[in-house]
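Honest question from a wet-lab person: if I give you the sequences of every part of a complex, can you actually get the arrangement of the whole thing, not just the pieces? Trying it with mine:
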Amino acid sequence: MPGTDGCVRCGSSLHAATLVMDVRPPRAGKLAKRWRRAMPNLTRTQTHVGRLIRFGADCLSPARSRLVITQWPLVWRSVLPGWAHWHAGRRDRGRWFITAFCTLGAFGVLFYGRTLGSIFSGLAIAVHVSAIFDLINQYEPPRINVFGIAFDCPAWLVSLAVMMAVLLVLYAPIAGAIMQVAAPVEVTQSFEALQAGQVVLVNQRLGPGDQLQDGQLVLFNSSTYRVLNPFLHETVVNSNQSIGRILAGGGDMLTCVGGRVYVNGRQCLWQPSQPISLPSAEPVSEGMFVLLWNGTDERGTAVGATIAPELLRIPRDQIDGRIYWRYQPIWKFGSIR
Amino acid sequence: VSSRFQRLELDATNPPAPKAAAASAAPAAAMETHDAAHWMRVAGQYRRQGLFEAALRHYSRAVEMDRALVPGWVGQVRMLVALEEFPEAELWARKALELFRGQADLTAGRAQALCRAGDIKQAQGICDAAIQQPGQSPYPWLVRGDLMLALADSVEEHCFDKAVQLSGDWLTLIEIAEIYLYYHRPAKAQTRCQQALAKASDQPYCWYLQGMSQSASGFHDAARLSFKHCLDLDPQHAGARAAMESGGGWLRRLLGR
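Yes, you can. This is the full assembly:
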């Protein structure tokens, strides 16, 4: 027929005899053959282990492999539970997932810093992961091509990969960021207005540019102790954290008159519970801080040098963060001075 | 460097019979006069001896002479599958199917390559398409049986019986035995080898495959006897010779391997 080179009856090309083409088939290289022989059972049988190994090989060799996902609009909408369902037309399910996620998440925020808050937050994440599983099970699994071997990625493997991706890509950075600027710490020993059992938020972002000012409440390592690590070596651990208030920083001059503490000749707003005395004026060197604390931590070797009862001189790197907010109990929610 | 010269087809004009290999002093002019049918015949003889590499070379030569030779393309694909080069076989079958659209044997060859490579779902669809094509070739039924074995389905015997009905050639039975051996079913392979031997007891490859299946089943004495028959018919048979030399260890017998 005009305009086509195929046989009218069978569709075969009628130009086959005159075509200039290579008639030698491609051959497998020695390395490829060795690789295939090294895992013959995995290529012959559809075992989960084989699929997992192939999936790993697929991830390790992106240049020679291909992961086909045809539902990208749903994939990126999965960052919010229920959104992808809504987009896919499953609005009833989407509504349930977003409602459950928001409710549990709200309880998680409400009880933040408590065990109950962790449980609710975990449940909210579980709802999110379940929403993704539900979405995956509604569609065909993606096809994966590894070294020329194509197979359907099983739904459980896709679900596992997505769950890991959600936890590592979405929730781990969010949790890391929150822990940096608003780490919840339960007060173990009462200090000034903070009662034992209350939860405060600590900003741990104390970079070189962040100034610690006099009068700020801080969380610091009050003492160290030794432990045996898994390699049976003794290790010094800085983990006994206490709450203190900065009285003086580097370059300040600390004096004591009539049992009251003066910094650079000015009386401090915060004073120890008992009158103290200093033999002479105490200069504070650069990089050091003098803290007011309750001075009752006897669980290990003190990190800093005790100047007087309730006065401790410690280096800056022992200060973990700045306490700025009381979170629990919720009826005492508010900033701390 | 020597390995490059080993692949030269200097004895290609001769029939693949080992005895004839020595008398390979055919003039170069004679090589030019052979047509595609001759190379197909030579390739077929190699294939009946289980020499897949040589058969593949001669199928390629036949296709070179006549690019519209469908059995040549099919032979290439089947030899690639026999050499366990499945991705290459699939690629080659796909290329051939661009020229011969819907050809049953080529479609079946692609299905077999996909099946052996592990993509059973796609292979099933393609195999069904191959069987629906008009024609009386046993190969699509062999591939269907191959798929059934890969899926651990017990109806594979029906497919193989259908292939045997379509072709009375002993080679079909031997190909069934090869498929069984690939899937570690030596007992069933042995049955097919016996059927093939009933038809062609003078073929060394039948004896060799029977020996292999007997050896895999644990019948080492019977296997040695089969290999001995194979070597009687073809003293140069490398596979049987290697099996005879390696298969007699007492530890191997004790372990039943």
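Two things worth pointing out. Confidence is low (pLDDT under 50) at residues 10-15, 17-29 of chain B. The longest helix of chain B spans residues 52-65.
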